[in-house]
Amino acid sequence: MRPSDFGRATYHLDEFQTDDPEYRLVEVDVDTEAYDETHAPGAVGFNWETQLQDQTRRDILDKPDFEDLLGSHGITEDSTVVLHGDNANWFAADAYWQFKCYGHGDVRLLDVGRDYWLEHDYPTAEEVPEFSEQEYDAGGPRESIRAYRDDVEKAIDRGVPLVDVRSPEEYSVEVLAPPGLTETAQRGGHIPGAKNISWAAVTDDDGTFKSREELQALYAEEGIEGEGTTVAYCRIGERSSVAWFALHELLGCEDAVNYDGSWTEWGNLVDAPIETGEADD
Question: pTM of whole model > 0.90?
């Protein structure tokens, strides 16, 4: 859903505020304090770190926990769910990918994050909505859009395109993590053969996605034209979800997958191959 749609969408916010589970608006943040202060009317707030991740396994929710979370917020498998959030939709994109992993039919990513919503004076509310609990019956898990460690090892051997969506500084080991974050990997670098196409390269300055034509040209410059598998990864899987969304959902690259273990997993593996240095010109 593009920004041009949201002038119109704001006139239909009442659909997200009723107890009818047909429509739900969900804000996904890594820090929900801002949500607690203000948010779009009717928006449910999910904390990506504590509610959409299993902190013991460091993995996405298992199916029963996913079902419980959504059902407890008045969402059914038939609901139209619209997602957006902080950090230019990093965590909302990851939630979108997780919804798709569990086979949710009608889930959409709002092409405006929390900052865009506030800066453009869209309606806000302080009240945290409470909806009647529902039964949620998840499908999947749909493994075809997810890559694991073994898949990455095979991708290296077969020359499958790998896209490192971290910043050029992380890719080249100038820094080990984005500013303000502590790196959890033991070493820096990137997966051998990976092309550095930052998540920020797929969006404009306001955080909205670039046009289809611009995205096609961006990936084509690195020889990625949508044929066969493309593996996206970052540090903890949220930024790579933005790239996966651009590839899989906007460009129709059906075999694009998200390696959500990303550098936190790969950078801690014993004897896993890595490369260092800047991207090739």
Answer: yes
